[in-house]
Structures are given as C-alpha cells and as structure tokens.
C-alpha cells in the first residue's frame, strides 16, 4: 500500500507509483496489481483549507482503509503522511528513512 498526501494530476500519480513500484515490487517481479495507491486526504480542496482539520477528518477513513486492505507493508510518501501516520508533527522523512517502522501494526517504510 502506497500512501500519498493528496490527489494530484495523473502524471504525478504515475511517477509516484513507478518510483515505489520499481523499488519494492518490480525488483521482486510482482505484478502491478499488488500495488494499492491511496491518499491521506480523502478529498481534494479547491481553495484554502485548515490543514490540521482536514488531516484529522481524513485519518479515520485512512485507518479503516488500511484495516480493510491489510497490506503486507505500507509506503508513506512525504513528511505530511509520515507526521500523520506516526502522530508526531515534528517527524521528518529525512530523519526516519532507511529503516522499517511499525504503523498500526503494519511494517512501514518512509520515502521522499
């Protein structure tokens, strides 16, 4: 399961999936159908929004989605996703990447 911050244009999605897929899936010769891409924010804001409120609103939906999918591992893309998933506003990928972590009982790797 790959978790991105927010819904973006298709070109970004393909790049994000390819980057993670190449590192974790294609090297192991697994089919692309083994990848599940989801987003931290469950709606795409059209104008300014309260970031903390939207993240708090979206997190329960993401947790339910993770429990439903039951992934073998989770890939968190970016600081925002990492901060929400580890419940630490000061967490940064650059300080945590390079090792596996446990998030909601699932193995998790942090990228970007």
How would you sum up this structure, described in words?
The chain is α/β, with parallel strands linked by helices and 112 residues long. The chain has four helices and five strands; from the N terminus they run βαβαβααββ. A hairpin with a 2-residue loop joins β4 (101-103) and β5 (106-111). The longest helix is centred in the middle third of the chain and has 19 residues, at 51-69. The model has no long low-confidence stretch (mean pLDDT 77).
Summary keywords:
112 residues; alpha/beta; globular
Can you give me a brief rundown of this structure?
This protein is of the alpha/beta class. It is built from 4 helices and 5 strands; from the N terminus they run βαβαβααββ.
List the helices and strands and how they pair.
Elements: E1 2-4, H1 10-24, E2 37-39, H2 51-69, E3 73-77, H3 79-85, H4 93-96, E4 101-103, E5 106-111
Parallel strand pairs: 1-2, 1-3, 3-5
Antiparallel strand pairs: 4-5
